Amino acid sequence: MALVAALSQEKFWFDKSKYDDAEAAYYQKSAQ
Amino acid sequence: MVAGTLYTYPENFRAYKALIAAKYSSADVKVASNFVFGETNKTEEFLKKFPSGKVPAFESTDGKCLQDSNAIAYYVANDQLRGKSDFEKSQVLQWIFFAETEILPASCAWVFPVLGIIQFEKKVFERSKEDVKSALNILDAHLLTRTYLVGERVSLADIVVACTLLHLYTHVLDPEFRKPFVNTNRWFTTVINQSQFKEVAGEVKFCEKVAEVDH
Amino acid sequence: MVAGTLYTYPENFRAYKALIAAKYSSADVKVASNFVFGETNKTEEFLKKFPSGKVPAFESTDGKCLQDSNAIAYYVANDQLRGKSDFEKSQVLQWIFFAETEILPASCAWVFPVLGIIQFEKKVFERSKEDVKSALNILDAHLLTRTYLVGERVSLADIVVACTLLHLYTHVLDPEFRKPFVNTNRWFTTVINQSQFKEVAGEVKFCEKVAEVDH
Questions:
Q1: Which pLDDT value is given to residue B99?
Q2: Which chains touch B (3 or more CB pairs under 8 A)?
Q3: Does the global pTM surpass 0.90?
Q4: What pLDDT is recorded for position C211?
Q5: For chain A, percent helix, then strand, then coil, each to nearest 5?
Q6: ipTM of this predicted complex?
């Protein structure tokens, strides 16, 4: 399937939520 | 009236955004026929116009070059799609960024392992389903009292968010999973059945049964 | 003239975008003083206005609510910052999405382990440096013949891309690493030294020596 081959060459931020959680925790700690 | 060539591989949901926007605005956007993904976008000539080598990429007939699917869709759209007032324009942008930063990462993390595009990682996979649920819930609450995402007519917000949801609705949102999101399903079905959307993306087949992840 | 309240935690580069844009447009944007990140943004009242619970979030004095840092910056900006023509507006969007999709992921993957915000993973860490290099190279080539990213004056493109580069320039781009990117360094230094930028982000201290990763 050409689409799968094309998509596999693209870059996506798969683990963005991991970074979002870590950033929120870091700034929540400094805020509190 | 904007006219030009869009470089992309077939069935690219990102390219759909500009092609659908052009149907509404009557911009004359043609998909390059001689484009081979992985080759054309690596040539010197292409990289000179489009330094990141990414698609979709757009070149207008008067030589203006743009990359990024949302920027291209914005350029070939019209004021109706972009939003009338400054606030509406900002709301359209808000939903476009919602699609890019809240829906797309979760969609890829869920759909790509199912399609065998990336390695299955249980933790990331399970988390992506939660993220998809919360994104669909936000849409569902917003669409309880609204037909479209911004104002009373279709805008780039509807086009971009619906295009970004295509992989989810066709590959992994089976009837069971999507059942609670009544307003989002209603909105999505309306958007994909607009003639401008259908001419570009064709008939959207809703997922009946999620394919097993290829471990 | 737009006026309203911005909800954010201190030193949030995402909030800087709107605050700097407001300095150029003279919009009256005040940072909420009684906001405690992790508490206020979890209250019923906040979530009713801002369903995702994320910051920055903006409420205008006439009750308009917006989320997403770029949408807020767009709303409090002026036409000069947004881009004059449709093409300029699209170019501004192109660079804003470049910041969100090319710079931010790489910046987080490189800076967060150094700050101890996230677990160090060698492969991801090394890959992020390559991604930062390619993003800086694209900027550098573009800025060889240009003072600003779009047109001949500061726009939202410069503000958003510069704010997104702040973590990199202050925490990990030591003199050795940043040396080759002459045009980008020139542009970045110009943007952060505009009074509107300085009033919000203060004096930007360039990284002298990268802190050891806290394994």
A1: 98
A2: A, C
A3: yes
A4: 84
A5: 70, 0, 30
A6: 0.96
